Amino acid sequence: MSSADAQLTRGTLYATLAYGAWGVVPIFWKLLERLEALEILAHRVLWSVVFVAAALVATRRMGAFVAVLGDRKTLSLLLASALLIAVNWGIFIWAVLVGRLVDASLGYFVNPLANVALGVVLLRERLRPLQWAAVALGAAGLGIMLLARGAGPLVPLTLACTFAAYGLIRKVAKVESLVGLFVETLVTAPLAIGYLVVREVRGDGLFGRGELGLLALACLAGPITALPLASFAAAARRLPLSTLGFFQYLAPTLQFLTAVVLFGEQLDPGRLAAFAVIWAALTLIALDAARARRATL
User: Fold this and answer.
1) Contacts of 168 (CB under 8 A, 6+ apart)
2) How far is it, in rounded angstroms, from Cα 28 to Cα 50?
3) Going residue by residue through the chain (297 aa), what tens digit of pLDDT does each one get?
4) Prediction pTM value
C-alpha cells in the first residue's frame, strides 16, 4: 500500500469514528436523563475543560493555548464560537431528553444548506443553479414542517444555524481543534461551575447525591466531547475536503435511526414530508459538488 493510500485509509477510519460517535452520542445523553438538560450541559463544559487541559499538557501543546490568549482577533472569534456551541449543545441535549431527536437530526441534515446560505449572505458567494435549487427545496422542507407542526422547525433551524455559524467562525479562527475547544469551554466554565454550585447549595446537585455511577457518567462527557473532535481533526488532515463532506451525513442519519428504532419516536406525515424534501435538497448538493469536482480535474 502506497503512502497516499495509507493516508486515505486512515483518514476514512478517523472520519467514520468522528461522525459515527456524533451519530450515536444521543444514547449517552439518554443515560443521563435523570438530570436536567442545563445540568448535563454544565457537566459537559466542566469535564471537557478538565479532559482537554490534561490532553494539552500531555501532548505539550499548552503553548498554543497561551499564544491564543495574546491574539485578540482569534480570542474574540472563539468567544463568539463558545456562545454558539453552548447554545447548540444545550438545545441538542434538551431535544434528546424530551423525545425530539428526529427534529434535531433534521437540523444537522439542514446544516449543509445553512452553510451555503451563510456563504451567500456573509461571504458574497455566488450560487450555481443546483445550489439555488437545493436552498429552495430546503426552505420548502422547513415550510412544510412549519405548516404541519406549528413551531416544529424551531429546533432543527436553530441547530442548523448555530452550527453553521460556529463552523464559519472556526474556519476563520486560526487555531487547532483541541486548543479552540479548550478556550471555548474555559470561557463558559465559570457559568457552568456557578450553576453547579447553586444546585449543590440547594441540595439537588449531582455531587451531593451520592450517586457515583451517575457522576461517573457525567465525567465521561469530557472525553465523549473531545475525542470525536480530535478524530475529526485527524481525518481533515488526511482527506480531501470534498471527500470529508460526504461523511457529514453519517451523524444525522445515525441520529435519525437512533430516534426511531431505539427511542421509539414517531414520524408524523409532516416530518416525513419535510425529510423527503430535505433529502432531495441534499442530493442536489451532492450532485453539484461532484460536478464541480469533475470540472477541476
Assistant:
1) 115, 118, 122
2) 19
3) 566 667 778 888 988 999 999 999 999 999 999 999 999 999 999 999 999 999 999 999 999 999 999 899 999 999 999 999 999 999 999 999 999 998 898 888 887 777 777 777 776 767 778 777 877 887 787 777 767 665 557 888 899 889 888 888 888 888 888 899 999 999 999 999 999 999 999 988 898 887 889 999 999 999 999 999 888 878 877 776 556 667 778 888 899 999 999 999 987 777 788 778 878 877 887 777 667 666 665
4) 0.86
